[in-house]
Recover the amino acids of this structure.
């Protein structure tokens, strides 16, 4: 993940100094609890200054997570630029897991907050990024389940895999993590797990979406209409069956 600004801590403005100090303490911590007194001491600020910039400790923690996740997200977007929607989904999974393993304490705070049903803003950012990737997959004719269902399934699988690896050890390339990734993507897209080839339904849907209304070289309008009919039948009869 991209490193924070290399400016010395004591030369940063107060808000950035507090964020950096808190992030440093979380990196050193084996637990999800860092005291505000420790943050104040490392940042060289008083309690009123800290609470001027952050409403409370929860606000500070959420801001630290959001700052780290925003830096990761910028790096992730650069990494997947130019990839196909399907490759973006696969690489995005691996990068997401990598973020969690690089920042295990922040990741647990992000996806397993102490307060039940509380959602950290960074988790919403992650979900919207995932939704954007899945919309691109849908627009390419490769998604065989509703977008909301795909978001929920992929988010649950990716976060579960990451938390499991944080607890038990392993990296994004751990066999069970890769198997889960491929199985979930296969379910969402109808691709085969081993080689990433499209199933009959998604392949037909993709070609159907790419066909112009008229003017396909080598085909008459009547033949184009017939091809369109055949492809429509395949997408209906085999929506997600692998080849």
């Amino acid at each position: 993940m991209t490193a924070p600004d290399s400016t010395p801590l004591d030369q940063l403005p107060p808000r950035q100094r507090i964020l950096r100090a808190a992030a440093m303490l979380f990196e050193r911590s084996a637990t999800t609890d860092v005291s505000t007194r420790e943050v104040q001491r490392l940042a060289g600020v008083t309690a009123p200054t800290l609470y001027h910039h952050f409403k409370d400790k929860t606000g500070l923690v959420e801001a630290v997570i959001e700052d780290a996740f925003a830096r990761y997200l910028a790096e992730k977007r650069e990494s997947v630029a130019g990839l196909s929607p399907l490759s973006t989904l696969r690489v995005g999974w691996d990068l997401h897991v990598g973020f969690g393993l690089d920042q295990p304490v922040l990741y647990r705070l992000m996806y397993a907050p102490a307060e039940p049903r509380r959602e950290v803003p960074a988790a919403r950012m992650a979900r919207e990024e995932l939704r954007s990737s899945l919309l691109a997959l849908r627009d390419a004719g490769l998604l065989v389940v509703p977008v909301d269902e795909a978001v929920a399934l992929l988010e649950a699988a990716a976060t579960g895999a990451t938390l499991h690896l944080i607890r038990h050890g392993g990296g994004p390339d751990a066999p069970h993590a890769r198997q889960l990734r491929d199985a979930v993507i296969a379910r969402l897209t109808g691709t085969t797990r081993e080689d990433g080839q499209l199933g009959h339904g998604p392949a037909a849907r993709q070609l159907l979406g790419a066909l112009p209304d008229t003017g396909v070289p080598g085909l008459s309008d009547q033949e184009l209409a017939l091809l369109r009919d055949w492809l429509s039948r395949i997408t209906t009869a085999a929506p997600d069956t692998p080849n």
Q: What stands out?
A: The first helix runs from residue 14 to 28. The chain has a mean pLDDT of 86. The chain is about 65% helix and 0% strand.
